[in-house]
Amino acid sequence: MTDYQTANNGRADVMWQRGELAAILNVYGHLVAQGEWKDYAIDALRDCAVFSIFRRASEVPLYTVVKTPNDSRKQGMYKVVAAGGQILKRGHELVSVLKVFDKKRFRVVN
Question: Model-level pTM?
C-alpha cells in the first residue's frame, strides 16, 4: 500500500498508514487519559498528512504531527510542530519523533 490515495477528483493525497496511526493514537491515548488532550483531527492534503492535537475542540491545535513524503530524503518525512509553528522534532522514524511527547522532557525542575 502506498502513502498516497487517489480522491474522486483524480489527485493523489498523502494519507496515514495503519501502523503510523496506531503509533500516534497510542501516544494520544496516554495523554488523553492524563487529561492533557481532548480532541484530534486528521487531514489528508496533496503534499502532506496532518494529525492535529487539541486541548479543546474550539481552539487551535496544540501540536501537529506532519508526514511529508517529499522530505523523506532530506531531514525525514515526520515532524512535530508546536502551536506557534516551532518544529519540536523531525526525523525518518515516526516512533522516534513521537518521543518528543515523553513526559520526562517536559518536567519542570524546582
Answer: 0.81
